[in-house]
Amino acid sequence: EVQLVQSGAVVKKPGESLKISCDTSGYTFTNHWVGWVRQMPGKGLEWIGFIYPYDSDTKYSPSFQGQVTISADKFISMAYLQWNSLKASDTAIYYCVRRASPGYCSGGNCNVFDHWGQGTLVTVSS
Amino acid sequence: SSVLTQPPSVSVAPGKTARITCAGNNIGSTTVHWYQQKPGQAPVLVIYYDTDRPSGIPERLSGSNSGNVATLTISRVEAGDEADYYCQVWDSSTEQVVFGGGTKLTVL
């Protein structure tokens, strides 16, 4: 059974750094892109980016490029989302997701997310 | 780049049919996926490749995509269908995942 289990809720102050994690199991981690999706309070879903753990190739939404870093450790099947300096506007639930199609594949058919983590609530407040 | 427009809310009586639209310029030329998010839960994929259902998703949920509108249809609506629904595409011109704004389905 494919599972994505995320780290727990966290409260941080503006300017602090943070790294949240996504522990995957039930499939070959290096075969599938793993991504992150943000959901601000009461709002919709926003794609942040994803990483291909096989070679660490990474794609970001322009809205998040430079604001966060996505990484993966293929030896322990974990993906991460990291901030160097949090802002109050980073307060949101963050979901990790698995892209259904393995490997390099382009087009709409490839970019669908078949498994989601339970979400990590990040609260940034002074 | 793709902009996907969904109605903020749709209301339907139990047993009736709900249709949730996702409008985008020539959306019929790409592939649309749909997610269901119940309160306090993570989203779940309910329709992929315009019309396909993952295992465990009831046949009451179906999808279509043509022209400038994709539609998620829920037949014989039940109270348990009450949720937010999001459409999603891949914008090949910008290489980005794009989500619609979401539609809150209320079962009266």
Describe it.
The complex is a heterodimer of chains A (126) and B (108). The mean pLDDT of chain A is 96. Chain A is globular. Chain A has strands at residues 3-6, 10-12, 18-25, 32-39, 45-52, 57-60, 69-73, 78-83, 92-102, 113-116, 120-124. In chain A, a hairpin with a 5-residue loop joins strand 4 (32-39) and strand 5. Chain A contains no helices and 11 strands. Chain A is an all-beta fold and 126 residues long. In chain A, the strands form 2 sheets. In chain A, strands 2, 4, 5, 6, 9, 10 and 11 form a 7-stranded mixed sheet that branches. Chain A has a 4-stranded antiparallel sheet with strand order 1-3-8-7, with no helix packed on it. Chain B contains no helices and 9 strands. Chain B has strands spanning 9-12, 18-23, 33-37, 44-47, 61-66, 69-74, 83-91, 96-99, 103-107. In chain B, 0% of the residues lie in helices and 45% in strands. By secondary structure, chain B is an all-beta fold. The model of chain B has no long low-confidence stretch (mean pLDDT 96). Chain B is globular and about 40 Å long. In chain B, the strands form 2 sheets. In chain B, strands 1, 3, 4, 7, 8 and 9 form a 6-stranded mixed sheet that branches. Classes of the chains: A mainly beta (126), B mainly beta (108). The A-B interface holds A 35, 37, 44-47, 59, 61-62, 95, 100, 106-114, 116-119 and B 30-33, 35, 37, 42-45, 48-49, 54, 84, 86, 88-90, 92, 94-102.
